[in-house]
Each structure stands twice: as structure tokens, then as C-alpha cells.
């Protein structure tokens, strides 16, 4: 599932290199006595909590929490399997997800319109976040949030730093406060390894500050209520960064030949927020907006934009607006932002990027991945399940089949290699 492979919503980025102490903590499962001592230590620091939390309340509730090694394993495997932009976007914005999202837009038009009017965030963006975070569903993780939050706080300790600087500790305290105040039903309180929960994947500390009641029943329930999840997402996008309704997230562009050198060679992502300036100035310098990519939502105006080239040149090039940064505050990942933006664009009737990715082997839709997985099962790879997710077991089977077919070694297939692999 996507949310297990990536930082979930509203999680602030981890440092690229973990401090030495934290790194040693994730190398081995934490012994039970060390976890218990850690929880006790957290109890002794509740005075530093961003919002009031009594030591005895923390201990009473946290004593039900357990160390969950899936958290540590997820922290370790994050960079194990390199993934390509064209694979991720092919799966996350495939026809199936567009169709399902359009169905939601149609079935809940009135509610989504109300939310759009209240927060000024387009309904397509809200539904796209829903689609990317949890594939439009409540099945948003399987780890008890209390366990995930306590385990994270113990694997990523903060020492004596002030509470405001200690995200993992504050997340554990927020989790306990939500349970103390019965703001979430304990039996449904499950989520990702990063302690994100609900239909649009909020972490407890963000939930406390940002989640709102969308359906007007007086209760905030982002697990059961779609409208509460959508309103909370829209509120996040409006309050953290400020959504500019008249602006798209991105404009696909052609970079003028005399300015291409700074974006080559390919394979290096380039994002230049410091170069933000009005679109008209880029156009004056020869940058050309590719008309077919123009999102329907683009209105008149001259937004400040800056270059973003996911894989350098050759490859798709964009000028992105402040709305790009606002989505990035929801989930600190350039790829996540473009997944949401492209899906939203397709939901609104727009098309895929005009410029091809620099590959002769484009990515697969989830339907194609499922067909591949069914074929792998027939070939005897019983461990593979046909779930449309290119996980480790599927990649193991691909590697074995590629070897059997005499194809170059690898753990991936795209459109071209799929045909080569599956030909009789
Ligand atoms: Ca509600």
C-alpha cells in the first residue's frame, strides 16, 4: 500500500541522513525493556508537551501501547527499491483512479461544492488527495496509531530538545490526548507506520490543529466520514500555505534552447523556488507554456512561478506556482505533489503531460500490474498477490522471470519489457 512506502500526509520530512544515534536504534528491533524505559521517559517529559498532558494520563493510556517492529522496518526499506517517476505516475493516475474519482465528484457534488466554497480549494484537488493517500478508501493502514506513534518516538528520540522541535515526541503526546479525550474511537484508530490515519491520512498532531467537521454532525471523524476527511484536507491546504484558487499547480513548458544546459544531463531533479517570478517574465525569456497541458482551471493573471524538472532534460518541464508548495506541506515529496496535481487535472478533464518521459519502457497501470501478477502466479510464484501494487514479492518474481527469459537482470518491467516477458 502506498502509505506504507512513503511518508504519509502532513509528516514533516525526515533528515536525509539520520543522526548516528537514531541510525543505531533502527538497526535492530528494540528490546522490550528499552521500549518500556523509553515510554517512561516520555511520561517524565509531558511538561514540555505543546498542549497540556498530565504524566499520569500519559502513562495510563500509553501503557496499552506496544512496540511495533513494522515501523522500524518501514524506516529502513524506504530507499531499498528505486522507483521511477513514470512508473509511479502511471499507477497513481491511471484510468481506474480517474474513473473512480470522477464517480465521487459526481455522487457527492453538493458536499464537495460546499467544501470548495468554504475553503477555496478546488474539489478535484481534494478528491485527488483522497485518491492518492488511500485510494478513496477507509482502509488506511493496519498499525494501531498509538503503537506507531510510541515506536516512532522511541526510534527517533529527541533528547532534551524543546517540544516544538521534537516532532516524534509531540506526535506521541497528541496521540495520547486524542485517546484521552475520546476524539477518535480507539477500536478504529489504526494507520500507517508514520502514525497517519483516516481517509486522507492525518497524523495526530496535525489532526489536533487542522481537522474539522465537514458533515455538520458536530464530530470530527476522518476515519468514517468522507466529508470530514475532505474538509480537513481542504482546511490543511488553505491554512498551511494558502491555496490560490485562480492558479493551477503547474504549467508544462518548453525550456528555450539557450537555457537548457542548466537542466541537463537527465536523471537529476531540479527545483528552483528561489527563481520565482511572474509567468510573464518567463514567457518574455522564451519559456513557452505547452497549450495542450494547460489545466482547465487556469484563469487570467500572472502568477509567480519557478522551474521544476522532475528528471532534468530531456523530460517534462514545468513552471510551478505557490500551490505546488502548499501541497508539498501536506506531504513533503515532489513526486507526491505531481501525483496529486496530475490526478486532479485529469479529474477536471485535463490530459497527461505532453512531453514524454526519457524512457523507451513507460510505466504500467494497476490493471496491467494485476495482469502481470496473475501471470506470475501461473508461472508458480505463489507468493505474489494480484493487488496491482508493485511490491517486493512481485519484484522478486519479476527478477526470477527476467532471468529465466534471458532478459537483462532487473526487478522492474514497463510496457515494452512486459510484452517481452509475457510473450509465449
Ligand atoms: Ca463530522
From TrEMBL:
Keyword set, alphabetical order: Signal
Region forming the signal peptide: 1-22
Pfam families in the cross-refs: PG_binding_1, SLT_2
InterPro entries (alphabetical): Lysozyme-like_dom_sf (IPR023346), MltB-like (IPR043426), Peptidoglycan-bd-like (IPR002477), PGBD-like_sf (IPR036365), PGBDSf (IPR036366), SLT_2 (IPR031304)
Span of domain Transglycosylase SLT: 34-345
Peptidoglycan binding-like domain boundaries: 366-420
Keyword Signal: yes
The name this protein goes by in its record: Lytic murein transglycosylase
